């Protein structure tokens, strides 16, 4: 039976690239609020899912398990927010970013554990370089640095370590990929040249390059890697 991979936030950008990459070797279930704009090729399915709702995530896992052994979960669902000074961030905005980016990751992971345990699968969380730096952009704007987004991604790293520690005995590996500045809707195109000038490799990354990292961490080639945060950022953060 063909292995199954779940990609949350898989309808666009990095999530879509991850879904395409994993579809080479898995049946892929894309979980997102809205369906992808592109037609789904054979081997991909879409299930409308709100990652902040436990009942949606339980339904997602039940759907995926009915298709085959769930060998991979790539959690890419996330939102950003406008850059603004801390004093101007409303509590509702703070809670919405944390709820989707961090609490949503916890809810998805919790729902996926039984299926991943049964299949000896792996989990990859898409975090951000912002988790390490505390700023969401390589060149911060004068409007602010998105502390809610940065905090949510830093919390995601700690969640990965906690899950990796607890679930290792169950044969479940848990890792993170930390993208730097990546071409796509989250960064206005007019800022790409400005950002690229500050990147050692002199360009923004591609969603496909994040997908390659996530696919590697899900694969047997990474079978002795867990609790790891893989930086994919063109050299802007060297740990």
From TrEMBL:
PROSITE patterns, per database record: ADH_SHORT
What are the BP-aspect GO terms? Answer: fatty acid elongation
SUPFAM superfamilies registered for this protein in UniProt = NAD(P)-binding Rossmann-fold domains
One Pfam family, short name: adh_short_C2
Q: Which residues cross the membrane?
A: none
Q: Which residues form a coiled coil?
A: none
**Which GO molecular function annotations are given, in alphabetical order?**
oxidoreductase activity, acting on the CH-OH group of donors, NAD or NADP as acceptor
InterPro entries associated with the record: NAD(P)-bd_dom_sf, Sc_DH/Rdtase_CS, SDR_fam
Give the record's family classification.
Belongs to the short-chain dehydrogenases/reductases (SDR) family.
What name does this protein carry? SDR family oxidoreductase
The species is Ramlibacter monticola
């Amino acid at each position: 039976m063909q292995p199954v991979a779940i990609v949350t936030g898989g309808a666009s950008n990095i999530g879509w690239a991850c879904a395409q990459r994993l579809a080479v070797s898995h049946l892929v279930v894309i979980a997102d609020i809205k369906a992808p704009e592109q037609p789904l090729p054979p081997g991909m399915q879409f299930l409308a899912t709100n990652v902040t709702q436990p009942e949606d995530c339980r339904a997602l896992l039940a759907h995926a398990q009915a298709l085959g052994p769930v060998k991979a979960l790539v959690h890419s669902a996330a939102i950003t927010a406008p850059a603004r000074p801390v004093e101007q961030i409303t509590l509702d905005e703070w809670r919405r970013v944390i709820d989707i980016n961090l609490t949503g990751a916890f809810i998805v992971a919790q729902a996926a554990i039984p299926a991943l345990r049964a299949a000896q699968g792996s989990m990859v969380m898409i975090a951000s370089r912002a988790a390490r730096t505390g700023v969401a952009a390589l060149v911060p704007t004068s409007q602010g640095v998105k502390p809610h987004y940065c905090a949510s991604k830093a919390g995601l790293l700690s969640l990965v370590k906690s899950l990796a520690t607890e679930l290792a005995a169950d044969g479940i590996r848990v890792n993170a990929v930390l993208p730097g500045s990546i071409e796509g809707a989250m960064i206005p195109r007019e800022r790409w040249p400005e950002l690229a000038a500050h990147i050692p490799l002199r360009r923004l990354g591609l969603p496909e390059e994040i997908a390659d990292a996530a696919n590697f961490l899900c694969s047997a080639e990474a079978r002795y890697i867990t609790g790891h945060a893989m930086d994919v950022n063109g050299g802007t953060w060297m740990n």
